[in-house]
Every structure is written in structure tokens, then in C-alpha cells.
What does this fold into?
Amino acid sequence: MATKLMVIAVSAILINNFVLTRFLGLCPYLGVSKRLDSALGMSMAVTFVMTLASAITWLIWQFLLLPTESNLIYQVAKLFGFEATPAAFDLTYLETISFILVIASFVQFVEMVIQKISPTLYSSLGIFLPLITTNCAILGVAELNTITYHYNFLESVVHGFCAGIGFTLALLLMAGIRERLEVANIPKALKGLPLAFIIAGLMSLSFLGFTGLSFVKGG
Amino acid sequence: MIKRFWQTLKRGIAEENPVLVLALGLCPTLAVTTSAFNGLGMSVAFTFVILGSNIIVSLIRNWVPKRIRIPVYITVIASFVTIVKLFMAAFTPTLQQNLGIYVPLIVVNCIILGRAEAFASRHGIRDSIADALGMSVGFTWVLVTLGGVREILGQGTFFGLNILGSGYNPTLLMILPPGAFLTIGVMIAIMQHLRQRG
It folds into this structure.
């Protein structure tokens, strides 16, 4: 169990880094990587939302969408005396719609809670939260947890958290480099986005080196 | 009428190209373009979704309360994405497998939500269709070019046809993630150069 979690963690942070090898969360990666402090705020917000969104979407997947004995809709139907098999409650095709709606409302909710509880935290994280809804990394981690990898609850949460850490790593590295670039003399056509992409390419190249890491039990 | 249609189309292809100029919708652009065919497949799915969502959003624009408009738009988009996903699973399972999680991720493609919010919710249905087509053409040419360049350099083929001959030693790097970043970086640089000059 611990080994499997360790493998998931290393794989999400280094080998399959969300930004550099899966291309998830590129918009904030390029959008807020101009300054180190805003990059830090964004990555904290993303890690936080990603971890909790992983947990919530897993619960929805397991108890509302999958056609198993533990499907809550099936349970309720049985309670009222409907004669049906769990297969009749296969709602897996609603997964995209339900995940994105839950994530959107969850982000909105977190924003309100933070604003109420800690105005200081809100002033540093608040502006990033609305942006997170359309951050493909959040929906991406939910899809990967449920459809691609079939993780259990704990594995999903660990995967979500570590994917956030991987995002943080990539974003902070990028912000550090771009702060230095501000003062560098670069060709006009490469200014801004093109150079950011080329830097990302080189970083992705170096992260490819981690592909060589292999585990006894495979990840 | 026709003239305005062409203008909208041209805007999508060059001046306001969603990928190269506005830098939106980058995740699918980079992730699926390991070959020209995959790029084209993603573009077709994208075109269907943005066309559908622009039409619906434009039709319901007067009835949607302002405060909940974003969730409403997301629901509309997600419905079309589900249609595409089920359609792909039924008729083109290979493509579905190649594109993987990036099909459901069309929901969070910022181009589609951006056009719904910035354009379709304020314009009539004909303009919205023209806008959707313009954006789609702009998206498609970038994806097919990007996929084509990566496929030619990385595998020596174009749409599966061997064009560089057996003597060509493929640059595997172009198929891997760094190749995507480097190629799009160069493409945007060329675009910026042309715009600065023109």
C-alpha cells in the first residue's frame, strides 16, 4: 500500500508532471508565471483545490455514477421497492457534466469560505480561484483518477495532492526563469509567449530524464 | 452579409487566431498533436462543440440570468462534449483512444467558454455561427500544421503516408512532449514576427 502511494506520488510529481508531460494547466502556467509571488499564490490555490476536488469527484463517481451495489440512487430505489438491477443506474456517461459542475460550484464555495474566514488569505489567493474552474488540470486529475487509473479513495487524494505539487514545482521554476528574462535582451519576435514555450520545452526535455526511474512494482 | 462572414472568418484564421495570438486552448493543442490525423480529429470534435454551444447560447441569451450565466454555459458545452464523446466511442474507437482524456477536457477549453461569454451571448445566431466557424478554422489549421510538423519530423510520415523515405532517421523528440512546446514556440514566434512587420 505504502509503496503504491509512493509510486503514485513520484510519478505525479516528476515522471508524468502535469504541466510538462501532460500539458494540463498550461493557461495559468503561462499566464501567472511572470512574477514569483503570484506564481506561489496560484500554485497553492491549485494544489488545495486539486486535492479536495479529487476526493469529491471520486465520491461522486463511486456512489452516484458507477452501476454497483453501493450506488446511492440504486439503494434509494430499492428502499422504495423498485425492482431493478444496479446496471439500470449506469450514469457513467454523465461524468463530464457532473464533474465540471461540482468543481465549479466547489471552487465558488471555497472562495466564499476563504473570504469569510481569512481576509488575508483571500487577498492573496482570491483572485486566482475563479480562474481555477476552467483550469484543465482540475478536471484532468478527476478524469485520470476515475476513468483512466481506477484509483481508490486514498490513492485519488494522494494523486491529486502530488499533481498539485508537481504543478507548483514547474510553475515556480518557470517564474524564477522568467523574472530573470525580464532584463535580458532577446529578439523581438521571441518576446513573451514564444520564449516561454521554448523554455517549457527545454524544461520538459530535462523532466524526460525522470522517465528512466523505474519501480519494482511498476506505476 | 457575405462580406461580414468572410471578415469574421479571416479574424479567426489570423488576426485573432485563438491559439497563436490569444494563446487559449493550449492543452489539447499540444497534447494531441502527435500526428496530423489526431490534430484533425480533435479539430472536428472542437468544431462540433463550439458550433453547438455558440448556437444554443445565442438562442437562450435573453433568458439566462446574468449571475448564473457561466454555469449555464458550462452545462451547455458539457452536453455537447458528452455527445461527441459517446459518438467517438461508438464510431471511431481508435481516435477516442488516441485522444484519451483530452476529449472530455474540451469542456474546459477556454476558447469555447470565451466565445460563448464574449460573443455568442451578445450577438444573433447568424453572427455566432460565423464566429464559431472562424474560430474553428483558425484552431484547425494550427492543430493540423502542428501535428503535421511533429509527425513529419518525428516519424517521417504525414497522415500516415511515408513521405521522407526509409533513409530518414526519425527525431523521436518531436513526438514527445518537448517537441510540442518547441514547435508551438517557433510557430508563435513566426506569427509575432509577421504581425510586427505587417
User: Anything to note?
Assistant: Residues 125-155 of chain B form the longest helix (31 residues). The first strand of chain B starts at residue 157 and ends at 158. The mean pLDDT of chain B is 90. Chain B has one domain: 2-197.
